Amino acid sequence: MHMIELLSKKRFKAIIFDWDGTAVPDRFSSAEYLKEPFHQLLKLGIKIVIITGTNINNVWRQVGPWLDRDLAYNLYFCTNRGSEVFQWKDGDFITLERRVATSEEEDKLNRIAETFKNEVKIKYNLDVDIIYNRLNRRKIDLIPLPEWADPPKSKIDELLIAVNKRLKDHNVPSLSYLIKRTKEISFEIGLKDPRITSDVKHIEVGLTDKSDSTKFVREKLGVLPEEMLILGDEFGPIGEVDGSDYLMLNKYTKGATFISVGKEPNGVPKEVIHIGGGPEKFVEILWEVIKKEGELNNVGNSAGKF
User: What are the two backbone dihedrals, phi and then psi, of residue 230, each rounded to the nearest 5 degrees?
Assistant: First the structure.
């Protein structure tokens, strides 16, 4: 189905999307090309919901310089992998939701990460690093090498090759085995609902994930699934690992329109329409939604510009 035909069949009350790799190439790029479509969507009363694993400061650094504060009340930032929701209102951020780990949960997260680190060192002589300073989660760095300190999403294929080679060199069965083992350790230590995710470089164990952000949209904003347009770039698997946007497919979003603008080398779930094209295509989709609403007469010259 052509993208225009697809988007013309529904009216959306919320556009929900991943940030890195979907709306922007990375956290260091200018995002000013989003200014006009964001403002037009907000003028139309369409909610914009950013769902990301990073913190509010990283996103705001890219959005804040150009955002019209008078329109921002319909813009929501779901950050820290489902743990927080912010809204700009009356000249400042207000916190709509924030999951705060108990001291017991913090202790369990530490013990899980440290047990994992000790186990892979003893069994496989594999050195990993633990990143402690993340809200409600711990990150285990499987490849703590200078050349892979902060790989961009555009190098995910190369990163996967490097991680798999490192695991093979240490006789580790697979990345999926390590993910499974992290979950087992979590249960052994008594974390009842561990949220295990991976971006290939890290395994993360936490208390929340992107499904919590979609729950907020459904239950707190009152947006029905058929009124949601959800965009990402990693709905399909990367190697043996679920894509970072896969968790946006859940009971709160069943029936929504899902579009991937990513490469998706291993395909996408059946609910997702794969278009590709990255942030440039993402912008085109925003303009198609704006034009469909029939509120703008002269967007044709601007549509699709990146």
Answer: -115, 125
Average pLDDT of adjacent 10-residue blocks, the chain of 306 residues: 71 96 94 97 96 96 96 96 94 94 98 98 98 97 96 88 97 97 98 95 97 98 98 93 95 97 94 96 96 59 52
H or E segment and range at residue 272: strand 272-274
* 112 and 176 inside one domain: yes
CA–CA distances in Å: residue 180 to residues 63, 188, 194, 205, 250: 37, 12, 11, 11, 21
What does the pLDDT read at residue 294? Answer: 64
SS3 78: strand
What is the reported pTM?
A: 0.92
Last residue of a domain, one of 186, 206, 226: 206
Per-residue DSSP letters for 195-238? Answer: EEEE-SSEEEEES--HHHHHHHHHHTS---GGGEEEEES--S-B
Q: Which of 206, 236, 257 finishes a domain?
A: 206
Taken as a whole, the chain contains a residue count of 306
Beta-bridge partners for 129 = 141
Number of domains, the chain: 2
Residue 199 sits in which domain range? 103-206
CA 105 to centroid of chain Cα atoms: 23
pLDDT given for residue 224 in this prediction:
98
Place of tokens 């006009």: 36
